[in-house]
Write a structure and sequence with these properties.
The structure is a single chain. By secondary structure, this protein is of the alpha/beta class. It folds into three domains: about 5-80, Orthogonal Bundle (Arc Repressor Mutant, subunit A), CATH 1.10.10.10; about 90-165 and about 265-295, D-Maltodextrin-Binding Protein, domain 2, CATH 3.40.190; about 165-265, Periplasmic binding protein-like II (D-Maltodextrin-Binding Protein, domain 2). Helices cover about 45% and strands about 20% of the residues. The protein is built from twelve helices and twelve strands. It has helices at about 5-15, 20-25, 30-45, 60-80, 100-115, 135-140, 150, 185-190, 205-210, 225-230, 240-250, 280-295, and strands spanning about 50, 55, 90-95, 120-125, 145-150, 160-165, 165-170, 195, 220, 235-240, 255, 265-270. Strands 4-3-5-12-6 form a five-stranded mixed sheet. Helix 5 (about 100-115) links the parallel strand 3 (about 90-95) and strand 4 (about 120-125). The relative contact order is 0.14.
Length: about 300
């Protein structure tokens, strides 16, 4: 048996498309088609069946897909584990799950460090699927995740605290409602812009719901950075992290005031799967991320 066929099987199951699987594998489309034909012969199953423009996996393929993927991840861990890691020489790609907020605040200085000290390392910042970060770390789809403490503290995975931020209320500078004396009742009457990550409710909306407040939204956006940019020229209000507000206040013409609600601080954490704890390259990147977090200025 050619074990490379299992790599082809994993790519085909991930993409459900022969052409995209070929691109993932770095081979031609005919080569990927030939691999699928050999896999069908090997397993005595169709594995993927044409359904319109896409391909559907058979029950057998679905049953073995996760086991094959996990086995390939473990093999990759064995092959890429080094006793010594040289950031100036080693070539490696790390996939880090972040929001656009933590990418801008934290990973931008990390990217600068890598450009100077680790020119052959690559970063892939994954900004979707935050609610599934545990499963994606366990499957090896991502190597690290920067997530709020309320998401990581009960996961059972290794983690480190990075930095603290707090939520403030923000609106356009031309919005007369946005003042430091804004009350809960004033907020309830104002049109509200909510920021969520995927299908998950935002951290602020979850906190407000826990406090018994209405979290209806007039506008909803899946980007912490885009949200504040939408406020200019409107009567919308939103909640924003203080560190992000300091970066966007001028370009977005923001007025940032205290929140009328007692919201707990935002503690961002770094988490990963325990199998990567002792990997030298992984450990080096974690050190760069925690160093960047320690160098951040105090919350504005």
């Amino acid at each position: 048996m050619d074990l490379n066929l299992l790599k082809a099987f994993d790519a085909l199951m991930q993409e459900r498309n022969v052409t995209r699987a070929a691109e993932r594998l770095g081979v031609t489309q005919p080569s990927a088609s030939a691999a699928l034909a050999r896999l069908r012969l090997l397993f005595g199953d169709e594995l993927l069946v044409k359904s319109g423009r896409e391909m559907r996996a058979t029950p057998f393929a679905l049953r073995i897909a996760e086991r094959v993927h996990q086995m390939l991840v473990e093999v990759e861990d064995i092959v890429t584990s080094h006793d010594v890691f040289d950031p100036r020489q080693d070539k490696q790609t790390f996939r880090v799950m972040v929001t656009d907020y933590s990418a801008l605040i934290l990973m931008r200085p990390v990217a600068r460090t890598l450009a100077c000290e680790a020119p052959h390392l690559s970063l892939e910042l994954v900004t979707r699927g935050m609610g599934d970060h545990v499963d994606r770390l366990q499957s090896g789809e991502v190597d690290l995740a920067v997530v709020p403490d309320r998401l990581s503290r009960h996961s059972g995975l290794p983690r480190e605290e990075l930095f603290v931020d707090e939520f403030a209320l923000a609106g356009w500078r031309g919005n007369p409602r946005v003042t430091d004396s804004m009350t809960v009742a004033d907020f309830a009457e104002a049109p509200y812009l909510s920021v969520s990550v995927g299908s998950e409710p935002s951290m602020v909306d979850s906190l407000l719901a826990e406090l018994g407040h209405d979290t209806r939204a007039d506008v909803r956006v899946e980007s912490f950075v885009t949200g504040p940019l939408l406020l200019r020229g409107t009567m919308l209000v939103t909640f924003i992290q203080r560190r992000l507000a300091a970066l966007l206040a001028e370009s977005s013409e923001l007025r940032v005031v205290r929140s009328p609600f007692e919201l707990p601080p935002l503690l961002e954490t770094l988490t990963w799967h325990s199998r990567s704890t002792t990997d030298p390259g992984h450990r080096w990147l974690r050190q760069q991320i925690t160093a960047a977090a320690a160098a951040l200025p105090r919350t504005p």
